[in-house]
Queue: 4 jobs
Job 1
Amino acid sequence: MAESPKFQVRVEGSIKSIDERVWDSCTKGFSAFAESNCEAPESFSQALESTLEDGFPNPSNPFISHAFLASLENSKSVGSRSGWLPQHLVVEDESGKIYGAAPCYLKAHSQGEYVFDHGWADAYERAGGSYYPKLQVAVPLTPVTGPRLLVKAGPHADAARNALVAGMVELCKMRKASSVHVTFAQKSEWNFLTSAGMLARTDRQFHWYNRDYKTFDDFLAALSSNKRKTIRRERREALESGVEIVRLTGSDLTESVWDAFFDFYIDTGSRKWGSPYLTREFFSLIGEKMADEILLVMAKRHGNYIAGALNFLGQHTIYGRNWGAIEHHPFLHFEVCYYQAIEFAIERGLRSVEAGAQGEHKLLRGYVPVPTYSAHYIANPALRRAVDDYLVREREFVEAEREQLAEAVPYKRTTT
């Protein structure tokens, strides 16, 4: 085996400082690593219990792309004012050739992460410590599993991966941060990070899997009778007030469309979070750079848009992200966010729908509980021991809850 180059890790305060082609070439290297660390299912029509827990290795996960991360920065949706200060890690050899990277941010709070550590922060502050700043290796404001250690495939991949982990710890010391949090990592990365000494954490989301359905009715036929009737009723009632559903992608994503969607986002986000992160410019930028990777499901009434859901498209998956509405009609949220995404996935032959964080109501609409993974480095030994003890019990609870939820899936039970 060829000797690995002598790697060094540098920090970039903006993704604009990293060549787009180089960054994206690093994201492509993840598939081989993921595929070598998990077992793919024999068929996506097999029993639900055999669904792929690691998420299908997706070489076109849109959120780790340079275009998406740059849109967040250029629109000032992230940056010093938001409390997400870019500190991207880059692994290179002595000649400056890049072998890997990681999206990293210095955080002054724990907002917009969807992996909650407020209790850890409160306990540490009460004990006299300073929990902030901390480092977050993640895609901001995006609770979607995906690669975090972006390393080019090749004989030096493991060395580059180790260099990234060492770089995280060193940056934590340099910035006098309390901790490093790698959130929504692929399971293969999680295994790698925890074997390197990081603390293991799990949670769960609800995803929908395509079992070789040809039509939405095929999907309904797989459900129990009462759930099938419920979904048909909800879809019917969502449109009873003269609501029309339209799907927009590519050149359909005009500025007037984004104006309407932003109004929905602000209205709903202000009520849920108080201060939505994403700026109006962000939507223009992703519309310019990623139009073919976006599906905007919009609801119209009397010729005017009244609600919408923003989805991103990967190679195998549709990712539901943001929803908003200025009119409220029974079951419209379910139709726009969940049923339209399922129907689109079936029509396009996509393997799954990921509908974001939380939401046990998704279970009754065909989404099943799947685990999510994060890894944590805690600098202070006492805090580390306390968090480690807590996570042991939390992992047991999360797995027991997921098994219980899996028993409640609305699909017909197969008999052998």
Job 2
Amino acid sequence: MKKPYLITAALLLLAATSQSQDVIRQQSCSNEFITKQVDSLKGLYSKDGFVLLKEASIAMESEFEMPVIVPLTQGSWYQFVFIGEYSSRLYEVRMYDWNEKQVVFQQKKWGDVDGNVISYSYIPQFSEFHMMKPVQVNKQKKKNLCGYVMLFKKAAPSNADTIPHP
């Protein structure tokens, strides 16, 4: 009589472990050079009337995309920034809309003037989620690369910013 319960329990345990999957979790990282760039860019975009909506440091692996999903509002002006480790040789960002259509692609190389920073403006045609996929290629370090993403939104002009018409 005890055997059917043991068999059932073993089958349930086996089924539960076979259904479990490894989950990719975003982990933060720290890089002093990137931190200085982040502070500088925050000040620059703030002066241009942008408000920081989201930011995150992300631990990355060379040649692997790190998907970042963000809700965007139709007609709003956004500024996206990705900063990779200075020692990487290639940086790319692709952005996709809800229908998985690529709407942005940018690539930078180590020798470029602002090589480890990719920044672009975007005004969505629809209010929906978008996915940004930054990647960096680093021959020295394959794992534990640091990256940083920021999402800014252009602030609506206040009444004091508008010029009254006579």
Job 3
Amino acid sequence: MRKRIGEDDPAGAPEWMCTFSDMMSLLLCFFVLLFALSTVEEKKMTQAAGSLKQAFGGQPAEYVVPPIPDRKTEPLMSRPAQTVKRTSYAKDELLREEQHKIKALNLQNVIQVFGTEQGITFRLSGDVLFERGESALQAEGIAALEFVADELIQFPSNPVKIDGHTDNTNLSGDPRVNWRLGADRAYTVMKFLTEMGSPAGQVQEERVSYESFGEHMPLPGADNNTAIGRKQNRRVEITLIQTDEGDGTYFRNPHEKDPRTPLIRMDSQAP
């Protein structure tokens, strides 16, 4: 009698074929995983090497180039990415160093230092630098300005901006009085830094600009309607500008954010 197909023979592929197919699938997944991991590590190595190169003064390219063709190829890293990371680190380190120096010299009641978008700012009490309503330096403020000058000359490639601020006291009724007083005080500080400076030297004139805000930029929480608030608002702020060439902020449009052009004319009449 003729057997029907499938009555005694097992259906489908032999058992060894299934085992072999599973092994091949696992091997394929394993090698794909190895390839993916090696690609990720290569990119990370490129970025890490590029960051180290920039930290030591190198100039990375504008973008990351994966993969690395050979071992002799220099690592490349994104310029905006490394600039932000490097300048943020530089600003934090410098800020901590300046705060430590001010505290060691017992100048914390005269000078406050903090980081801003533009760089590192030294805030000096206007009452220590000047008599009320005057723009001539007092002897008490000279030591503070000498300290600031000594710090600024250590960064010769960075511009310096000086801002003059006043409170809202105005007995003359002339709305320009406080604006001019802020300008005169900022100019006085600029002349001291560039002519007297510190025992270590003077700040180069071409680095410095000054500006007056008068009473129009009070500090947050400093109410000009109170004596304490007015005292806090009478101040001079000296900012060490961080630029793409120095240790600092990456300006996408330097013509808009570069404050080196003086905003106050020297031949303006004093009140």
Job 4
Amino acid sequence: MGGVSLILTQQYFVTTFVVMKPLSRTSAGTLYHQLLGVLKDRIESGDIGVGDRLPSEADLVRDHGVSRTTARRAMDELRRQGLVRREPGRGTFLTVPRLQSNLAYLRSFSEEIERWGYRPGARLVARMEQPANEKISSRLAVDEGEAVLYVRRLRLADERPIFVCDSYLPVMRFPELRDADYGAVSLSRLFEEAVGLKVERAHQWIVAAAAPADVAGLLEIDAGAPLLKIERVARVAGDAPIESVEAFFHPERYRHYNELPAPPVEVIE
């Protein structure tokens, strides 16, 4: 990643030097934005790959002629964007890209994955009918003990595990869901095709949780590792609940994002 590299040919060694140019105060953009752009260009080009160590702040100061404050600010912004992680005593490393969800809109998980340029996938893990417990009966507005369809799927982005999704479906209310194809990527699209109704709104809760052993195995993380758990009740036209979901997200591959405007000024007459 810059500096000196040795290339072995059949007959001799060739030494190549990659010279970093100082940034220009006369160029468009502040030194901070220029440096941030240089680092992101190296990441996007593959010059810095997942797991590679980034230049230290001292390296950036020396190679680009910026202040330590500017170098630190650029590295902090990469961390804020979830692109890198800092390991005390070792340095800063490029991490696996995280999917980012905007909480301001109701989108299916598949739509979120597609919006960020990844290929969504789904693997059916389990499917069975079981009696609704108190929590599920309340969320789906069915009688406790009524049969609901339980479906567990592992959701993927470019073949990498992103989250485990446990869905509970009211098959007595929507019998068409019994024979639906749960290997399909998007359940929202499946609901629309099978039942003829579109998901119009949802209630959602976000909590921290420890990864159960079965979930950890699917996500390829340690049992008990902290992760993000999202619970959602999706509703179709007429406000009928069609799905109660519990989703367990990989701690290093997904995050939620929201922009919060200031509240409007109240005018008292």
